[in-house]
């Protein structure tokens, strides 16, 4: 999952009009917060032009992961 980027473009139609919704990790993923994309905390991006959806990594989680990998 790539890091959240407020300047992201839709990979399908290259629109820059993209909504962002934070989604909490589910109860199972809470035990392993760096788990699968669908279970871990993420930001759901939705292109408001073509409707394509994808997930990006919240910036605080991204920072924590970098620290962990040092
Ligand atoms: Zn699009």
Describe the structure.
There is one protein chain. The protein has about 70 residues and is of the alpha+beta class. It has one domain. It is about 15% helix and about 25% strand. The protein contains one helix and three strands, in the order E-E-E-H. It has one helix at about 60-70, and strands at about 20-25, 40-45, 55. A three-stranded antiparallel sheet has the order 1-2-3, with no helix packed on it. The longest helix is centred in the last third of the chain and has 11 residues, at about 60-70. The protein is elongated. The two termini are about 20 Å apart. The model has no long low-confidence stretch (mean pLDDT about 85).
Radius of gyration based on Cα positions: 13 Å
- Give the termini separation: 19 Å
Question: Strands across the major sheet, in which order?
Answer: 1-2-3
Order of helices and strands: EEEH
Helical content band: 10-25%
Any descriptors?
1 helix, 16% helix, 3-stranded antiparallel β-sheet, alpha+beta, binds zinc ion, 70 residues
Question: Would you kindly provide a brief summary of this structure?
Answer:
This protein has one helix at residues 59-69, and strands at residues 18-23, 42-47, 53-56. It has 70 residues and is α+β, with helices and mostly antiparallel strands. Residues 10, 12-13, 15, 47, 49-50, 52 line the site of zinc ion (ZN).
């Amino acid at each position: 999952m790539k890091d959240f980027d407020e300047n992201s473009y839709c990979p399908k139609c290259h629109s820059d009009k993209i909504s962002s919704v934070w989604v909490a990790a589910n109860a199972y993923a809470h035990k392993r917060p760096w788990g699968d994309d669908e279970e871990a905390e993420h930001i759901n991006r939705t292109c408001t032009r073509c409707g394509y959806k994808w997930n990006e990594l919240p910036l605080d989680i991204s920072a924590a992961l970098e620290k962990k990998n040092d």
